[in-house]
Task: structure prediction
Amino acid sequence: MQKLNDEKVNVGPYTLHLIKTGKFKTNTIALKFLSPLERETITERALLPFVLQKGSKKYSDERELRLKLDDLYGAKFSINSSKKGENHVITFVLDFPNERFLPGENNLVEQCLQFLYDILMNPNVSDRQFNERVVEREKETLENKIKAIIDEKIQYANIRLIDEMCKNEKYSIHSHGYLEDLPNISARSLYDTYERMINEDKLDIYVVGDFNQDEMKNQIESVFQLNRQSRHDVVQSTSVEPNEVEEVLEKQKVQQAKLHIGYRTGITYRDPDYFALQLFNGIFGGFPHSKLFINVREKHSLAYYAASRLESNKGLLFVYSGIAPEQFEKAKDIILEQHEDIKNGQITEEELEQTKKMLIHQIKETVDRSGGIVELYYQQEINQFDIGLDEIYERIQSVTRDEVINIAHQIKLDTIYLLTAEGGGE
Result:
């Protein structure tokens, strides 16, 4: 198996990450801008990707931009934003063919870097403001996206759980922004937010593919000559101890109730216990052989689905389940019972070994995609925790049953949220 290695180069205005692999016929370049989550700026930061993808000074509209991507042998380009713990990240990604597979082509990398630079540094701006027509249109796009969340009940219930569970913490800030902010966003104010991102965010540039590292480093430094001074660093979440378990009931016109439960683990990606926590989550609800799936869904037929996932940058664990409204108490009791069973040592050797295999397989699937490689190493970057793939696999394999039980005792129930039918769930 080919080893992956993140060769970091501190360029000054940004950190360059060169990850060489012969696994793909494409190269991937990703630019990641990170800033602490702030309620005042989140909606404008959520809007920026929509506006920046609609063109630049050189490519006046989306059609011209897409035609240029066609010229770059069908390169794929996207901008998105997401929440990483209590940080907000805006990501620019360009995937393009490796010119080694294109006879006669020898400057595709330079063209692609220049394209990215044009989108990033020369947006469609006049007199320090974005094109008003584009901004208003994309405000409407974001408005529709936010309004659509109410119809995506799993996503809505998860947001509402976090609203209640983390109400006095930055993590509760919605990464997609807020409807009430949109009327006050202007083409000028959005440009101010863009400028702060360009000049002040922590910036990491990732390159994944088969390339000469010295040549790639020189090409990127030649094109991305940025005059900036990052003012932001990663906000590391602090652990919060739950005082008492809170139950929140919300009613809407739904047929299937959503029972979502939040736990505090107190463990993040950078902690030594993180691998044991991954094993706990896998046994609890992370995979089809997990206790939630087998006992809540299969054995007792109490849920249409039941699963759990970790928030590794904040130290949280979430349980998701879809249930019949009248089954709330029964489903809740059996979900909580699965946690108690692990605390009491009810873990078989087969469960432990199968979970280790599934976790390792999941990571191998992740690094089978260039985007997955970027995310894996960015997770390490923001947690200041460098570890190779082989060591990750070894650490997973070495987790003992007792360590998983110990983790189960550390995990604290925080909030139980039920979205149920009007007249149901009582």
User: Anything to note?
Assistant: The chain has 14 helices and 13 strands. The chain has a mean pLDDT of 95.
